[in-house]
Amino acid sequence: MLNRRRFLQAGSASLIAGTSGLLPTVISAPSYGANTSGYRAMVCVFLFGGMDNHDTVIPFDNENYRSWEQIRASLLSVQGASRSRDVLRQLAPAEASFGGRQFALPPELSGLHSLFQSGQAAIVGNVGPLLQPTDASSFNAQTVQLPSRLFSHNDQQATWMSGAPEGARFGWAGLFADIMQRAGANVENTFAAITTGGADLLITGQQTTPYQVVGETAVEPVILEDLNNPVLAMMTRHLRAQGFNGSSLLARDMATRSRLAIDANRRYNQSASQVGGAGDFPASGLGQQLQAVATAISARESLGVNRQIFTVGLGGFDTHSNQAKELPMLQQELDAAIVAFQASMQAMGLNEQVVLFTTSDFGRTLAINGDGTDHGWGGHHFVVGGGVQGQRIFGGLPPSSLGHSRDAGSGRLVPDVSVEQFAAPLGRWFGLDNSEIQATFPNLGAFDGELALFA
Fold first, then answer.
1. Alpha-carbon gap, residue 242 to 185, rounded angstroms
2. What is the arrangement of strands in the sheet containing 103-105, beginning at the earlier edge strand?
3. Cα–Cα distance measured from residue 443 to residue 12, given in angstroms and rounded to the nearest whole number
4. Which residues, 6 or more positions from 275, have their beta carbon under 8 angstroms from its beta carbon?
5. Around Cβ 410, how many Cβ atoms within 10 Å?
6. Going along 67-203, which residue ranges are E strands?
7. pLDDT tens track for 291-317
8. pLDDT tens digits, residue range 55-72?
9. How far apart are CA 436 and CA 427, in angstroms?
10. pTM assigned to the model
11. Which residues contact 65 (CB under 8 A, 6 or more apart)?
12. Which pLDDT belongs to residue 5?
């Protein structure tokens, strides 16, 4: 039976358009420690399909580049000059590490390279779902607990967002939003979590439901846009359930949800239409999604929020075949959109108040399958913003070879960094205190420390 709580959660998407494992099932303690001062927003760019980490951060020192080049020879023969060592964008981290090994980004990520070198971006190497510290030896010997259904798209997407495979209820960013709402961060929670391109689970909490935006507007029923004014007024009254006083609790909830949806969508669209331009963005799908995020951030005061979390998505990264052609185009789209978004935040004077980060189902194998790569585990990700400890590489970057201590087979990387270790510093930056971080990530203590992503 559909209970009232589940109905209310399901009915609020857009609002009218549409068991966590490592995370707690319920966080019931009141929140008093969260810092709600000022404005802060997190933006998750989810790369659906599993972005190839081995073609994201590329070895640059001669020894490791030659090893990488040899293992990927047939794929690189199709990519040609775009992966020649002399066209790669060498990274110069502020703190030398990795035993003198050097790294670079592909030319398609030249904008992210510039953000890294200017201190506005960091790289988190080899991060992914873990239940406890694991290496290739313990993985192969099956002496450690492992996340459920590794290498499965839907399950690993859900695990990244919630700590459990498909069927999970709450995401860690949604629990962040719940905590902030209890602490009084927002006038109302309707616009605290906004999605434009999937990854809704990440921002779903116990009290927080993703608000869906298409383009730069909330979706209103077409009938309200096309009919003449008398009928429009009548239909609006009908959808807002004006005058409804039925005795059924479910019917009352439905009427309330419909009324709130109409009002919220109109409020959002009015607020978005009154702010200035968000800047110049690419016409790509991801570019337009990030433009919508920038517009919502620009309208933050009118929307009554000072803590927001956004998800946008870019698909196509399941490059089992034709990777040499498809992946560079996806990298170009990702790069141009993030650079435009960062420029927009700087123009608004919000560079220190907004952080963007990438996530994906998993990384991919170093070994190739002909003209593509297969599902991996750990991957490399970017964290972008003025508050980030930029020009640094956190986590691990295992050798570009086969058979090392973090190779689970075919260059499929056993993560150095757990999702909790990646997410916890984002939560602290967002304003959560120690007890709230521990309540959100009860398994965090299984790992040795968090990442110092922020000063």
1. 31
2. 58-59, 103-105, 89-90
3. 31
4. 295, 298, 299, 302
5. 17
6. 89-90, 103-105, 121-128, 193-195
7. 999 999 999 999 999 999 999 999 999
8. 999 999 999 999 999 999
9. 9
10. 0.88
11. 58, 59, 85, 400
12. 36
